[in-house]
Every structure is written in C-alpha cells, then in structure tokens.
C-alpha cells in the first residue's frame, strides 16, 4: 500500500489470542485474569432430575461459559431420579453472583422466575460459596456421613402386606454398574440419536456425520470424535484422544474396571463359600478404619475470610496449595480356622485392585491374581507412566445392611403425579403432593440410611427381586397397568367436584 512521503505506512497489530478460544477461553498468554479477593474455587449444590452427572456438568459448562474440565465432583449419581451433590468450579474471574445468574440464565428470564420456578432443564444450583480447593472424584472418606435414600416404587403388586414385611429385612451387596466396552455399538436402552451417531462412526466411518449427530450430552464420545477431527481424521493417537475427556469422567473408567474385578471375585467367593458366614481365607479389618486421606487445605481455618491478592489478582499465599495428607492403608488380616468363627459375613471385605492392598488367602486369592493377569495387569505393580491411570486400591465390605429402613404405602391413579417432594420443591415453597387414599394403584415409599460405597439400586434389587437395569425398568414402566391413566389427574379432580 503506497503512502504519501514522510507519513508512516500502514501497520498490522498482532495479538495473541486467548488460549482455548470460544466462550470459555482462558486468559491471554502472559496475562492473569483478575479474580478478586476471594479463593479460586466456587462450590455449590447441584440438583438434577432425570439427567446423568456428566450430562448435567456439560449443560453447566455451556450455561456458565466455562470449560467442562473446570467443573469437578466427588462422586457420580444415578440418572433415573432426583439427586443432589456438591460440585466445584475453578472460577477464574467469575463471582458467586455471576455463576448463580448464569446458571439461572438471568436476562433470558427474570430473577423472580428463577426463585419461584423449577430449574431449567431439570438443573438447579444452590448453596454457593468460595473455597480454596476443588473436589476430586476420589476425595471420599471411610467415615463420611451416611446417606438417607428415599425411593418410590410404583404399581407394586403383592399377594399380601405380610410379603412386604418380610422383604423389608433386606441384605444387599455393593455392586456398581458393570464396565461397558467403550467400543460398543449399541447399549441397551440407549437413546436412538446416540445409536445413529455411533453407527455413523463405527460402521460408516463418517467422522463429520458422527460429530453432527452425536448429542452434546454424550461427553466422552464427543471429546474423542472432536480430537480425531482436529487430527485430520487420524486415529492412531488414541491416548491423546482419551486425554481430552474430562478427568473425572476418565477416572470413572478406572473405577469401573476396579468394580468389575471386585464384583467378579465377590461372586466367585459367594459361589464357593456361600453368603452366610466368614470362612478361612477371608479378609477382615483388624480395626475398623476411622478415616481416609482427604484433601487438606492449610488455609481452611479462615475459609470465610477474603484472601489478600497482588496486582495480578493472585493470592499472596498462593504457593501454599491444598495438599493431601498421606494415606495409611488400614490394617487387615486373613482369617484362619482358629478365628473365622469370631467374625460374621458382614465383617468380610474384598480389595479393589490397586496399590497397598492385600488379596484374600487360599484359592480365591490365586483366582484374583489370575483375573488381573488375564487383563494384562501385574498384580504386584499397578504403577503406570500416566500417573492418573495408576490403580489405587482400597477395601469394601462384601455385604451391608441398610439402617433405619422404613416403608409407607401410598395410593395413586395418575402415574405422572409426583409422590414425593423434592428438595427443590421445598426450597420454592411448593405444596407437597396430594395423594388419593382411594387411588387405583399402590406405591411404596422406602427410606433407608446407606453406608459408604453402598448402592441403593442393589437394595431395591434385593427388595423387589427384579432386574434393575435402565433398559428393563423402562420396559417395565411402559407395560405397567397404570400407564393408561396418564394425564388424568385434572379430569379426576373435575369428576370429584
């Protein structure tokens, strides 16, 4: 471009773009986004309805305009139900007020609507506060508070109420969902949209079509496909593609494998020795553990006090990061013929495969080691080059008893009418459900207190003696006699006037 003599020519100014780009991009290179005089994390309680945990986190990442990797949880919750759990957000320069308004989409709807209506798409967050450390998927202690579980079983059919009394004395086994192969084409009960997208990739090898069809809620698959897209369709860097999946979700695959092994060996133990008593070779605690290493924040004592910051918005005590107290493995022992009679089946534990745990004695211990070797693992060395894939072992009791179990019979006609009041409804001041004493169908409201690492699903399996998979339960609901009365509550109310 020509310019008059003596005048400065045209210039092009080049600036580094924000890392990550997009709405959730992080700060520019060499810059620090100010975050104010508060700790770097925000914790809040998430209530979700009929959404799995990763789907809910993906939704929050979009509404909060953050990277999904900035959100963390200490454990996952079932999809089918109304659940609550704590979530941490690495907030950058966001404030509690900003997060609450973004999650409730203030601007698109009013503040009045946000505090008087249910959360958008089955999601509500509450109880927000600043914290100096985030949550970790495994930051759970042995002595964590027990969980009160309430469950509603609809269209219950029994020969007599005496049968219900007998079933209430339930014993159940800890058994998370079995590991599912990541390369599976169709999973029972999977949404048709996901099936079509998976076929587009695994059958037609059409990456672009698979990405276009894959719902955003399917986090792991989308991460892998997007990684392959960035690599120009190259799929050889599978480890790199896996690393794009949010860390909490990746760790769940590790935990799923541990649970898979645990369940297989416990099933073998019950097949050989039964489930009524402890036997020689079983493992038990020498002393019940009182706690496990938890995230320790050296500044937690003054958590409510603002933190002094420098000109970059960073804490003046930032180098004192949250640390973990060293984990001391619990002391266990292998039972012999001399002391097995002193323990009950509820004392027996089984290790989750990993470091610092012992295998049971006798043939069962050999079977345990063979199981791991068959999957290419060395029972004596669980260290991996990628540290986050290193298996850290622990112990779980093979059988547990729920505490303070109680049940109440409810009557209803319309299956769409809520039979229990969720925390969100209480928060909003909604009236509790109005139940009909002369309803056509019977439901059971079951309450119980569960200990650490116990799945309510397994308690319900033992109580009902039916399969608990999503696929089976969906078919059971569709075939239920009460479905013919869906949406009739208003008509019935009019008839009763």
UniProtKB/TrEMBL annotation:
Q: Which InterPro entries match?
A: PsdUridine_synth_cat_dom_sf, PsdUridine_synth_TruD, PsdUridine_synth_TruD_CS, PsdUridine_synth_TruD_insert, TruD_catalytic
The entry's keywords: Isomerase, tRNA processing
Domain called TRUD: residue spans: 101-401
According to its UniProt entry, the protein's GO biological process terms are: pseudouridine synthesis; tRNA processing
Note the superkingdom of the native organism. Eukaryota
Q: What molecular function terms (GO) are annotated for this protein?
A: pseudouridine synthase activity; RNA binding
* Cross-referenced SUPFAM superfamilies: Pseudouridine synthase
> Where is there biased composition of kind Basic and acidic residues?
309-319
Map out region (Disordered) in residue numbers.
1-38, 303-327
Task: Provide GO CC annotations from the record.
Answer: nucleus
Protein family (similarity comment)? Belongs to the pseudouridine synthase TruD family.
According to UniProt, the name of this protein is Pseudouridine synthase
Q: What is the lineage of its organism?
A: Eukaryota, Fungi, Dikarya, Basidiomycota, Agaricomycotina
């Amino acid at each position: 471009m020509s310019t008059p003599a003596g005048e400065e020519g045209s210039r092009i100014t080049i600036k580094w773009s924000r890392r990550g780009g997009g709405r959730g991009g992080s700060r520019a290179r060499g810059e620090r986004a100010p975050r104010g005089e508060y700790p770097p994390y925000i914790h809040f309680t998430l209530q979700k309805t009929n959404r799995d945990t990763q789907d809910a986190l993906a939704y929050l990442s979009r509404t909060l305009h953050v990277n999904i990797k900035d959100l963390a949880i200490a454990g996952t919750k079932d999809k089918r139900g109304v659940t609550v759990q704590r979530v941490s957000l690495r907030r950058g320069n966001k404030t509690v007020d900003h997060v609450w308004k973004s999650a409730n989409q203030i601007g698109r709807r009013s503040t009045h609507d946000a505090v008087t209506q249910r959360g958008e798409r089955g999601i509500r967050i509450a109880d927000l506060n600043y914290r100096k450390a985030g949550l970790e998927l495994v930051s759970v202690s042995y002595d964590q508070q027990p969980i009160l579980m309430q469950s509603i079983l609809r269209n219950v059919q029994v020969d007599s109420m005496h049968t219900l009394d007998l079933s209430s004395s339930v014993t159940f086994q800890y058994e998370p969902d079995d590991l599912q192969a990541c390369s599976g084409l169709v999973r029972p009960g999977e949404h048709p949209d996901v099936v079509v997208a998976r076929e587009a990739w695994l059958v037609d090898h059409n990456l672009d079509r698979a990405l276009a069809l894959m719902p955003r809620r399917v986090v792991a698959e989308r991460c892998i496909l997007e990684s392959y897209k960035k690599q120009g369709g190259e799929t050889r860097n599978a480890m790199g593609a896996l690393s794009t999946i949010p860390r909490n979700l990746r760790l769940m695959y590790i935990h799923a494998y541990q649970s898979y092994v645990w369940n297989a060996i416990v099933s073998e133990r019950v097949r050989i020795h039964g489930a009524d008593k402890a036997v020689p070779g079983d493992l038990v605690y020498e002393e019940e553990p009182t706690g496990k290493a938890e995230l320790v924040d050296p500044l937690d004592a003054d958590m409510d006090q603002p933190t002094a910051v420098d000109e970059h918005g960073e804490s003046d005590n930032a180098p004192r990061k949250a640390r973990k107290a060293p984990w001391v493995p619990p002391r266990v022992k292998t039972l012999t013929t001399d002391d097995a009679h002193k323990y009950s089946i509820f004392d027996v534990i089984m290790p989750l495969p990993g470091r610092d745990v012992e295998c049971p004695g006798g043939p069962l211990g050999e079977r345990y080691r063979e199981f791991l070797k068959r999957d290419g693992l060395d029972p004596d060395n669980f260290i991996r080059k990628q540290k986050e894939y290193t298996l850290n072992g622990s112990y779980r009791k093979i059988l547990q008893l729920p505490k303070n179990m109680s049940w109440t019979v409810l009557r209803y006609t319309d299956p769409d009418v809520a039979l229990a009041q969720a925390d969100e409804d209480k928060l909003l001041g909604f009236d509790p459900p109005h139940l009909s004493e002369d309803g056509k169908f019977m439901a059971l409201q079951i309450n119980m207190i569960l200990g650490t690492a116990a799945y309510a699903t397994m308690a319900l399996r033992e109580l009902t003696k039916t399969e608990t998979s999503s696929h089976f339960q969906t078919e059971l609901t569709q075939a239920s006699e009460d479905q013919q009365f869906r949406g009739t509550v208003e008509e019935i109310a009019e008839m009763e006037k």
